[in-house]
Write a structure and sequence with these properties.
- This protein is 12% helix and 48% strand.
- Strands 3, 5, 6, 8, 9, 10, 11, 12, 14 and 17 form a 10-stranded antiparallel beta sheet that branches. Strands 1-2-7-4 form a 4-stranded antiparallel beta sheet, with no helix packed on it. A 3-stranded antiparallel beta sheet has the order 13-16-15.
- The chain is mainly beta and 224 residues long.
- The radius of gyration is 18 Å and the shape is globular.
- About 13% of the residues have low confidence.
- The chain has one domain: Double-stranded beta-helix, CATH 3.60.160.
- This is TIGR00266 family protein.
Length: 224
């Protein structure tokens, strides 16, 4: 699938070049522009149960859009709803992303949810990962720029759960406290994800929860 990612690493725009009868799938609301000959269809991808899981516990839309170029080539552009980057991942196997990171993909990829466990619930950063499987093209988005780390076999890293965007099959992980009880409750870090290689890990340079906490005291107080 031919594409360009413009204006990296923030305010990124994904530009997909479709061949005649070629399709690309995307989150609802992600489309910015499309050629007049591009047809859009909206459906609950994977059936009712899968769509409910992605929507209610995976942080994604219940419906997804499919864009198909009819009668010739076409162009569609996509963007995430926040200030951030877009990353292309050629998939062959499984990848795991935080809820809300999925932007678009080629047809044929399967999107499901994976339970993080009780500590994932306590982290406040999301209870489920999205599991994306198959062979094709995946485009994910982030809040801020995307930072890639390649972990060697057995190499570990601890990541704030709010900065973790995606990791590939082969990476194992646990959600744990950042330190002792005092550090966990007073450091502002809470729980972290410990990731163990081999494989790639994609991080975002900004944390949406931290941004909201920073912004909230500056919001005007509504008058009664």
């Amino acid at each position: 699938m031919k594409h360009d990612i413009l204006y990296k690493p923030v305010y990124s725009l994904l530009k997909v070049y479709l061949e005649p009868e070629e399709s690309v799938m995307a989150e609802t609301g992600a489309m910015v522009t499309m050629s007049p000959n591009v047809e859009i269809k909206t459906a609950a991808r994977g059936g009712l149960f899968s769509s409910l899981k992605r929507s209610m516990i995976g942080g994604e839309s219940f419906f997804q859009n499919t864009f198909t170029s009819r009668g010739g080539p076409g162009i569609v552009t996509f963007a995430p709803p926040y200030m951030g980057d877009v990353q292309h991942i050629p998939i062959s196997g499984d990848w795991f992303t935080q809820g809300g990171a999925y932007l678009a993909s080629s047809q044929g990829l399967v999107i499901d949810t994976k339970f993080q466990g009780l500590k994932g619930l306590m982290s406040g950063e999301g209870l489920f990962f999205l599991k994306i499987s198959g062979s094709g093209e995946l485009f994910i988005s982030s809040f801020g720029a995307i930072h890639e780390i390649e972990l060697d076999p057995g190499q570990e890293i601890k990541v704030d759960t709010g900065n973790l965007v995606a990791f590939e099959q082969g990476i194992t992980y646990t959600v744990e406290r950042v330190g002792g009880l005092k550090s966990t409750f007073l450091s502002g870090e809470g729980l972290v994800t410990r990731l163990r290689g081999p494989g790639k890990v994609l991080l975002q340079t900004r944390n949406s929860s931290s941004f909201v906490s920073w912004l909230y005291p500056m919001l005007p107080i509504p008058k009664n």
